[in-house]
Amino acid sequence: MSEYHKPLPKPSPISAVLRLCAMEKLQKCGGCGAFIYYPRPRCPHCLSENLEWRNVSGRGKLYSYTVVRRASSRAFADGPYVLAIVELDEGPRMTTNLMAEPEKIKIGMPVTVAFDDVTPEHTLVKFKPA
Ligand SMILES: [Zn+2]
Questions:
Q1: pLDDT-based confidence at residue 4 (cuts at 50, 70, 90)
Q2: pLDDT (tens digit, 9 = 90+) per residue, 24-40?
Q3: d(CA 64, CA 108)
Q4: Residue 108 CA to ligand 1 centre (angstroms)
Q5: How many angstroms is it from 64 CA to the middle of ligand 1?
């Protein structure tokens, strides 16, 4: 692990929940059965408050992506990198980075979660080709 220079989220109760759900669990609605990402107090589909945390597979498929070649700031000038939307096998879509060469990417390709320990305190949730 080299020194990491990009901005990182400040740890908070909200970031801890987001990290938990991205790494191992998602909310599942007891009313309609839908998995939910990001976490919230009510189901966005049926408004039920009957939500439980369930383990998830960490697998999905590439729904959409763009290759960032011109960074919006110096902190992100290590590109090109792939900004992706992954549709998890459980249903929700998640914005993330895809750790792959841009020339080898195809919409719909299977992907799996990859945890990038960028500092001892921060693990970023990314995806890689399955
Ligand atoms: Zn629901």
A1: confident
A2: 788 999 999 999 988 88
A3: 8
A4: 26
A5: 25
CATH number of the structural domain 57-130? 2.40.50.840
Cα 119 to ligand 1 centroid, rounded to whole Å: 36
Q: 84-100, pLDDT tens digit by residue?
A: 999 999 999 999 999 99
- The b-or-e profile of 87-126 (16+ CB within 10 A means b, else e) is bbebebebebbbebeeeebeeeeebebbeeebeeeeebbb
Distance from residue 42's CA to the centre of ligand 1 (Å): 8
For the chain, give every residue range classified as CATH 2.40.50.840.
Answer: 57-130
Distance 26 CA to ligand 1 centre (A): 13
Residue 130 and residue 122: Cα distance in Å, rounded?
23
Average pLDDT value for residue range 13-28: 73
Residue 57 Cα distances to 6, 23, 47, 115, angstroms: 28, 10, 25, 14
Pairing assessment for the beta strands 81-88 and 59-68 based on DSSP bridges: antiparallel
pTM, full prediction: 0.84
